[in-house]
């Protein structure tokens, strides 16, 4: 209602301006063309009834001004009245067309949101003693599904997770995300350690690429971070395959980048050669938060081209958020990070962003 009230001021302002112009100019000058823009300006945001009311008001104002000027006749006054009526009808038709387009857009966004929840389900807020939060921020508001992914699963071997970014965009990327998540959910329960889990994912992606053929068979890959927590949550083991390293936020608010010991290529490139499979182990004491994200965070740039540095900025922001009290929740951590990245990049996302935070409550 408030938005409609603000929108109504636009055609009202046009009518007032037309009156001022007509009274300030010689009688030979008419403000009818300016009055014709009033119903058109109302077409985008106001209701058909309001548009008709604006059109009738424009016709009445024009008739009054023409009567004052003594110019109301067939060649000018009546012709302008007919034109104003035609423009009002056109504005109503434009309004109905825009309304139908908006309705189709809303339905499409709803279907996209449902599809995203099916392809990329939100992990539980609590799992095996961990507090979990996840966010997906698309690069384009209308494109709610992309090539970034996250998945968390409780397995017989501990809580395991994967955060990844598949090559490509559009429907092919969504298909790759489905294949990655499906392969992970099966292999995470079966593989006894992270090394076997990575090999199972490699084989699954290789088979999927063969089925799709073409460019995807040779150039389809997924940057991925795979991690598992020990049963007592004291350590977290990781395998990084070409993915941005995660952050470890300790109970005191300090941030540590968990760099891999050895660089390794993304998943799906096993045909290019063999690489040593390194599993890194890090301490995960009580009060810690593991923060994982895709390159939509690390590659965000400001106006000067400076990349975003979460390790330097996030601890300061979280201390302000906590206000000296308890540490921020996983949801607060992700929301704070997303807002700061948006500020850093000037409000425009350069790429999709998938974020996952896992917090071990203090003992």
Compact description:
The chain is of the alpha+beta class. It contains 10 helices and 11 strands. The strands form 2 sheets. The protein has a 6-stranded antiparallel sheet. The chain has a 5-stranded antiparallel sheet with strand order 3-4-5-6-9, covered by helices on one side.
Structural features, described:
The protein is α+β, with helices and mostly antiparallel strands. The protein folds into two domains: 2-113, no CATH class; 122-359, PPM-type phosphatase domain (Phosphatase 2c, domain 1, 4-Layer Sandwich), CATH 3.60.40.10. 49% of the residues lie in helices and 18% in strands. The chain has ten helices and eleven strands. It has helices at residues 2-24, 32-41, 48-69, 74-119, 170-190, 194-212, 214-219, 295-298, 310-322, 330-344, and strands spanning 126-127, 130-137, 148-155, 158-166, 222-229, 235-241, 247-249, 255-257, 280-283, 289-293, 353-359. A six-stranded antiparallel sheet has the order 1-2-11-10-7-8. A five-stranded antiparallel sheet has the order 3-4-5-6-9, covered by helices on one side. The two termini are 50 Å apart.
Largest sheet: 6 strands, antiparallel
Overall outline: elongated
Mean pLDDT reading: 83
* Percentage of residues in helical conformation: 40-55%
Element layout with pairings:
Layout: H1 2-24, H2 32-41, H3 48-69, H4 74-119, E1 126-127, E2 130-137, E3 148-155, E4 158-166, H5 170-190, H6 194-212, H7 214-219, E5 222-229, E6 235-241, E7 247-249, E8 255-257, E9 280-283, E10 289-293, H8 295-298, H9 310-322, H10 330-344, E11 353-359
Antiparallel strand pairs: 1-2, 2-11, 3-4, 4-5, 5-6, 6-9, 7-8, 7-10, 10-11
Helix pairs in contact: 1-2, 1-3, 2-3, 2-4, 3-4, 5-6, 9-10
């Amino acid at each position: 209602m408030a938005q409609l009230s603000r929108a109504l001021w636009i055609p009202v302002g046009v009518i007032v301006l037309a009156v001022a112009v007509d009274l300030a100019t010689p009688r030979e000058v008419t403000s009818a063309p300016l009055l014709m823009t009033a119903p058109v300006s109302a077409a985008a945001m106001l209701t058909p009834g309001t548009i008709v009311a604006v059109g009738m008001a424009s016709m009445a104002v024009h008739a009054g001004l023409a009567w004052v000027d003594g110019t109301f006749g067939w060649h000018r006054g009546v012709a302008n009245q007919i034109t104003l009526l035609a423009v009002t009808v056109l504005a109503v038709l434009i309004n109905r067309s825009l309304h139908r387009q908006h309705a189709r857009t809303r339905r499409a966004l709803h279907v996209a949101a449902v599809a995203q929840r099916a392809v990329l389900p939100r992990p539980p807020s609590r799992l095996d003693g961990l507090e979990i939060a996840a966010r997906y921020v698309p690069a384009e508001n209308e494109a709610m599904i992309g090539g970034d992914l996250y998945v968390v699963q409780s397995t017989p071997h501990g809580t395991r997770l994967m955060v990844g970014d598949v090559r490509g965009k559009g429907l092919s990327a969504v298909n790759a995300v489905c294949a990655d998540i499906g392969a992970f959910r099966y292999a995470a329960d079966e593989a006894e350690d992270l090394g076997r889990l990575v090999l199972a994912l490699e084989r699954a992606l290789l088979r999927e690429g063969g089925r799709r053929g073409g460019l995807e068979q040779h150039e389809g890959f997924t940057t991925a971070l795979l991690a598992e927590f020990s049963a007592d949550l004291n350590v977290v083991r990781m395998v990084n395959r070409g993915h941005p390293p995660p952050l470890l936020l300790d109970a005191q608010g300090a941030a540590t980048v968990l760099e891999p010991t050895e660089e390794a290529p993304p998943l799906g490139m096993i045909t290019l050669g063999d690489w040593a499979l390194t599993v890194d182990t890090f301490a995960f004491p009580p009060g810690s938060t593991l923060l994982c994200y895709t390159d939509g965070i690390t590659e965000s740039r400001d106006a000067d081209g400076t990349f975003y540095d979460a390790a330097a900025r996030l601890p300061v922001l979280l201390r302000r958020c906590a206000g000296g009290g308890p540490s921020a929740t996983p949801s607060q951590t992700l929301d704070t990070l997303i807002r700061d990245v948006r500020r850093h990049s000037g409000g425009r996302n350069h790429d999709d962003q998938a974020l996952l935070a896992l917090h071990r409550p203090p003992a």
